[in-house]
Amino acid sequence: MTGLDEHPPAPEADAISVADLVRDVAIALHDGDSATAANLVIGLHPRDLADVIELLSPEHRVALIHALGPAFNYDVLSEIDEAVRDQLSEALPNELLAKAVTELDTDDAAYLIENLEEEDREEILAQLPKGERAALERQLEYPEDSAGRLMQSDFVAVAPYWTVGQVIEHARETDDLPETFSEIFVVDPAFRVVGSVDLSRLLRTKKDVPVSDIMEADLDTVLATADQEEVARQFERYNLISAPVIDEHGKLVGVITVDDVVEVIQDEADEDMRALGGVGDESIGDSVVQTAKSRVPWLIVNLGTAVLASFVIKIFDATIEQMVALAVLMPVVASIGGNAGTQTMTVTVRALATNKLGAANAPRIISRETMVGLLNGLVLSAIMALIVFLWFGSSRLGAVIGTAMIVNLLAAALAGILIPLALDRLKLDPAPASGVFVSMITDCVGFFAFLGLASLILF
Fold this sequence. Notes:
The protein is mostly helical.
């Protein structure tokens, strides 16, 4: 094979797995057969090609993009994981990135170049048409996780006195309108939004009707500096498909669509899940050093809390020496408390992230979790007391571990909800820190309750 097929058939998802496709592409690139590698992926949907690129090694990612040449769909760059996209932005030539920026929506273009060195970014921006450069520079001025960075700068805006016919002619004759849009915004002379018209309603209306007669004036707007999580909640709460973005003066500067918000919801859910596991912002594409740096801080904190729990055990070392069964049963108390605390903490952190938990209902939820902890403690303590009696033949030892489990499950319930609430009140992210401190409390309380009761009752 000496070149790319003119019209190669698109690979079928059922015919070949992504893993097999990645393997074949990697082999072709390793052998220097870039044409074969390119033909293997031509015709793939941008999302599927993004998956392939993410699974390749860093050097093969760049080689595949170069092999595709003009056939490379720049939309792939908006589908790729952020860490991989940043790696590609650093590795690809600025000329290619400049072409990509002109093809992508302004929000995706901003993500592509936002983390580049200032010199590289300026070189790319210098290659853009004046209007596109101004729009992109304006978008890059907004905070990273704000609505201004999430929005698209391309939209359709008309005056309220225009007729439907004028709007249709404007859409047909103007070259720099978005390729796809479903809503037209109505603005006053100061470019403040006064309403919107759904495209389907516009097309069903007679041409001589003024836009002001058919526009929807009750419009949900988004402030450009608003946090993207707040925007996502607004879309979810009011079932929005799109929303105009305004600056501090009320001027229309962009539009956010539901597909952008879906990505935000997915990203925020992933971020919360990673934070609960103490792994920060790492991704599957990170290097060994980057991954280790992301994980080690909270592991060090966790090491400190584990040492603290060991000090609690050390206090009762003489008690443990007198009854080996205590050493056998200690992990049960700590483990069940840790799991119960994690359950409560997970629900609490998620409720805080979605604004479902606040000062108004916090007392009721705290009371509920306390009662749940007590009920779970009674059930599990009865089961464990019976197991200990049958195992070791000691009713007193069964009573000790049963009582300790009740105490620890109550502590787990309270820690699981009070620690995230306290961190949130202090304006700290409760997701990464809560797990470590909840584990510390359940371990320390569990060991102290179990060994303390054993020293009082059994000896």
